[in-house]
Here is the input.
Amino acid sequence: MKLRCLGDFVELRQGLAINKGSAHLVSDIQDITYCYPLLRIADMMDSNFSKFVSKDVNSSVIANPQDIIYTRTGQIGLAFRGMQGVVHNNSFIVSLKTDELEKDYLYTVLNSNFVKKQANSQAKNSVQPDLTHTMFKSIVIPVPDSREEQNRISKNINNINQKIRTNIQINQELEAMAKTLYDYWFVQFDFPDQNGKPYKSSGGKMVYHPELKREIPEGWGVENLFNVAEVQYGYPFSTDYFNSTGEGVPVIRIRDILGNDITNYSTEEVEDKYKINVGDVLIGMDGNFHMNYWIKEDCYLNQRVVKVNSDKLPNMVLKYQIEPFIKLREKSVSRTTVGHLSDKDLKAINVIIPKDKYLYSIFERFESILNNIIKNQQQNQELTQLRDWLLPMLMNGQVRVE
Here is the structure.
């Protein structure tokens, strides 16, 4: 086995730069003309696409499912495949230019910590972390002597990846189920009435609520977010005490929210009120206002990350209710260089509270779904750790799995 540069094997195509010259190619709505999903990093991570690109775009930025996409700015060092759409400028499309390397093996090594660490180290040489074509091609990878050995390694790793993908698919289905249930209860108000019939469609009484400017079921209430949830802002950790070696407490930054992954720790003393519980809803307050449920114990909030947690509503319902306000605010400030979510913005949010007699059923259903989602995400993190431990062992011959 030899160490060789990626540039010996690959060619790169840059993604689409979104600027004044290309803005006309992008739409919020998918139709016959704007048919390609825009493959941004956050969208690829959760397979939820909100921007679409015209069919008139240059074909060089279009990725097909067999292509490998590698992130070069922002969250550097993530590899994706199975995506169809227009790659954003924050990523490359990676293509093989030789048959010396198996494509599955290339994808496997690009997903390894061995490559990711090199990519991030190279990118840090820029003022704004940015992995250039030259930097990427200078990354070294271990290359087995035979294609058969490459296939054996990638097959074993792909077995783990398949389990990870299965869990992701299950979670997408669980999320869709929860969203459908939420729409029935809190948008259409067709929850089961005392006779088991859909409330609003069966003539259930509705009353107009002036703050919401819409009708809600009689007996239901409206409360300010701060009256129904614990809202905790992050602690202003000093970067002087940060480390990546695991010393001290894990610190959640905005970039960690979507992936539920920690890369920084702090030895600074911090109060327990900043500690996060599994299932808490986290929101990033700068740039993209990322939202997600946290799945790890004993982590602490950094500044510009806010935790929302309620014992009056399931956290899934709480997230679904506040998400439209957060996304609307994100969109309204996107014209500035960096958008900011403020305390004032959050205090302007009101949420709908059902009658007490419905709360047990609501908690039971949504908490069960969220618990299963979190369990699958936790299992995926364990599988990822196993994969990242096993891959270098396979590549250097310390472990052999048939």
